[in-house]
Structures are given as C-alpha cells and as structure tokens.
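May I ask for an example protein's residues together with how it folds?

___
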Amino acid sequence: MEKQNGPSLFTSLLQILFPEDCLICGQLRMPGERALCRLCLYNRFERLDPDREALRLFLPVRILFRCAMWRFDKGGDIRELLHHLKYGHVAGLGWDLGYELGRHSRESIRVNRLVSQNRPLLVPVPLHPATERKRGYNQAVVIARGVSAATGWPVLEKGVVTRVRQTDSQTGLSLEERRENVRGVFRAEPDPGWRHHLPILVDDVFTTGATTFELMKSIVEAGAERSGILTVAEA
C-alpha cells in the first residue's frame, strides 16, 4: 500500500484536541509545556504571596488558611483562562493550574506547618450532576488532581460531598444574595473519619467566599473540625 504524505488522522485529531499554541499568548509551546508556555505561567499574572497576613483576615474560625495563587483580573487573561477551563473542554489546563497551585501552596510556611500537623484531604467544590454532564467534567476536581500531583495530598472520593440542587450564577449578585443562593446546596456524608483529616477545599476562584464557606459548613456538620481553602485566583 502506498504510504500517504502528511499527518495521520490520529495526529490531526490530537492537534485539534491539544493545540500546540499557548492559550494566552498564542506562541508555540516548547517541549514539556502543556496548556500554557512558561513565560505566561510564571510572568503573565500577578502572583500572590502565600504567607501574606491578608490570608488570615475575615475567615470563619474553623477555616485555618486561605491560599490563592493569582489575583483575578476581571475582563483580563485569567478570566479568559478560567473560561477556557470551564467551558472550552480543556481539562488539561485545570491539571496544569492545579499543579502550579500545589507548588505555590507548599511555599507557604503557614500552610506547610498546618499540613504537617494534620492529614490533608483535598475536597473539590462539587458541581450539580446536570452541570457536570454538560461541561464533561468538574474543573475543581481536575485542579485538585493537579494539586495532588504536586503535593502528594489525596483527593476526596467522588460522591462523599455532593451538590444537591442547581443554583443560579453568582455573577452580579450581592454578598447576601450569593449566600442565599448557595444556602443548603451541599451535603457531606457523615463520617467520624472527617475529624482525622484537614479538609482543604479546592476551587478555581475565591470571590466572596459564599460557596466555599457553605461547603465548609456542610463538612463541619458531617464531622470535620476545621478546613483550609486553595484556589487558583482570588477576586
């Protein structure tokens, strides 16, 4: 059989599913780079100090720390990046961001001290099943898996914490409206084992905390004594 010239159908499909250009700057990625080139990953966004005192302010007493990697820029590159993650079916991007978030959190003296005194357990903020089916995956789960790869912290088994009803988008809502929108939306399976872990809630963006605080509440009701929060960005 005569050998065909040009890329195979499989190679062409891979190029469509996993384009070789950086999602932000559009430049060709080098070997070893995934969704983003290293220049964008390390220099494009405002990286936050993982030990800054602000991490300890305005948190419920049971949340020991809150750590975000980047400052969220409304209408900017991070918003576009997270839009790709949620709606563009680029799950690999979530793993990349999670891996960098895991490395970032390990740079925090405070986080390292708390984790060394407890048994960390990554808890992705769950989506409603209908929303997850529509998107194809839960971006928080993919981020958590990246964090786990960088830190060795295990990810909570799916189904232990669930979102029991769909909610409206939090965008444009006031703080009180956000809180009411997610009130009672999560359910965690009661288990005495919660007391032996430090649940670390994982999501893409921390805005007002309404969602993660409500999730923390359900975990506490299930038996946990305290928790932490990790997000890619904070608004």
The chain is about 40% helix and 15% strand. The CA atoms of residues 175 and 208 lie 7 Å apart. Strands lie at 63-71, 120-124, 161-163, 186-188, 198-206, 227-234.
